[in-house]
Amino acid sequence: MSRFDLGVGLALMPGLVDEIEAVSDLVDCLEVEPQTFWLETGDPDEPFRLERDELLAVTRRVDSLLAHGVTNPVGGSRPPSAAMIRLFAETVTVLDASLVSEHLSFNESTGWGKAFSSAFFLPPCQSWAGVDAAVASISALRGNLTMPFSVESPVSYLQPRNEELPDGAFMSEVAIRADCGILLDLHNIWTNERNGRQSVADYVAQLPLERVWEVHLAGGLEHRGYWLDAHSGMLHPDLLRVASLVLPQLPAVRAVVYEILPEFVVQNGRNVMRADLESLHRLVDKCGMRRTSATSTRDAVPPTRVARSSAASTADLDPSVWEQTLAHLAIGRTECAEDGGGNATMTREMNADPGLALIRELVAAGRSGRVSSSLPLTIELLISLFGIDEVDQLLATYAAQTFPGLWGSQEGRGFAQWARSEFRDEPLIQAALSLDTAALDYLQNGQTQSVTIDFDPIDLMAKIKTHEAPNTTQGVYCVTVGP
């Protein structure tokens, strides 16, 4: 293993599979997001299964593979479930991944003795107790792994608190105590700096740089006075300048990976992936052999660590209280934050942070997107009947009355159950819901589904696509959903 031996990589999810061929000459390695290749089983003990053949068909295009978890973060006090850990380890083994990583965030908490997901990566509790919690979660996830494991530097839209460990110090303590690597997401920490948190320079100065084995770069965008980690392509010139200063300081970095969501690949009629990947290759070529004097100094002298006894005030930040308060507030359950195990003072302080409103907006947008992608026929029908503004309000009402689903199919089924009750006297909507949920069932078990509805399905789908009111002439039609 040597610096940049894995080269420039692309973070892979199913929506990008068709894009790989056009940039294959610029992709040295693929970083697979394992959970995006899992399907629901309906079995509560083993809720997901790996699409092994699909995964292998995609990844055989390159020699070097990495694995990056996207649903089981290890920054909180609740480690991933045993079933998730087993399947993650199985997927990593199938890939024979050179590096494995997960997010140093959390997305699950409890209320009234019941676990629930925020379906959004939330910033961890940056106290000494938070370090302990993260180390325990990392230990649980990596127990069955033999590959090198790293944790990713998180995004936080909240303002820093006086009693917190600094961002870089928290990451440093977790990595050292867990004896793991660091996936330094430069866009994440640059986003944090732009939004009022620790500077990139100070963050990097607090890290054990020999533990930084991988770097992520991505695009972002402005939104309501914040810079968002949107994975939206078009690498910002200022971010590339930051990377040109940081990369030469990393003595053990092996890969620089580019992240982009499928919906941002084509912008203004052109594919932005090639230009961004070319920028990364120039960056790696320039920094591959160059090492700054700061690097040689840091190789010999470890970074200054925060003394545990010097930050006694962080004892006030209990990770379980932090997580229960923030998770409830993030999903819009303000009235439940304290009843669910949170803290009145923390609830008040978090509500006063303008970043919380942004987090709520992003959580709500994610939920609406998962419903729309899981129930396309139903959502298009609702838009044709009521208009998009009214549908947005319906989705907001649903979200206010329910807990999020982490997976698209879970959110789709949740909305379908809610909508069946809300529109119990609307046969058209019931028919669309039946067709959509049958499609979800088919994707889950691969078995053809039969659905009986009271409307001509061809007319129903044709009219919905053009946002016209479907023919209400009733009949009885048996529809087969499958290949």
Overall pLDDT level: 89
3D shape: globular
CATH architecture of the largest domain: Alpha-Beta Barrel
The span between the termini is: 46 Å
Structural class: alpha/beta
Strands side by side in the biggest sheet:
1-2-5-6-9-10-11-14
CATH first level of the largest domain: Alpha Beta
| Main sheet makeup | 8 strands, parallel, barrel
Low-confidence stretches: 292-301
Q: What would CATH call the homologous superfamily of the largest domain?
A: Divalent-metal-dependent TIM barrel enzymes
Number of contiguous helices:
17
CATH topology of the largest domain, by name, is TIM Barrel
Number of domains: 3
What is the helix content?
Answer: 40-55%
Beta strand %: 15-25%
Please tag this protein with its features:
TIM Barrel; 17 helices; 483 residues; two-stranded antiparallel ribbon; alpha/beta; 3 domains; 8-stranded parallel barrel
General description of the model:
- It is a single chain.
- The protein is an alpha/beta fold and 483 residues long.
- It folds into 3 domains: 7-300, Divalent-metal-dependent TIM barrel enzymes (TIM Barrel); 318-352, no CATH class; 373-481, no CATH class.
- Helices cover 43% and strands 17% of the residues.
- It contains 17 helices and 18 strands.
- The protein has helices at residues 52-59, 82-95, 128-141, 167-178, 186-194, 200-205, 237-246, 273-287, 293-300, 319-330, 344-352, 354-374, 376-386, 388-401, 408-422, 427-445, 457-465, and strands at 7-12, 29-32, 38-40, 48-50, 64-68, 100-103, 106-111, 114-122, 149-152, 181-185, 212-218, 221-223, 226-228, 255-259, 266-267, 270-271, 449-453, 477-481.
- An 8-stranded parallel beta barrel has the order 1-2-5-6-9-10-11-14, surrounded by 4 helices. Strands 3-4 form a two-stranded antiparallel ribbon.
- Helix 2 (82-95) links the parallel strand 5 and strand 6 (100-103).
- Helix 13 runs antiparallel to helix 16.
- The longest helix has 21 residues, at 354-374.
- The model is unreliable at 292-301 (pLDDT under 50).
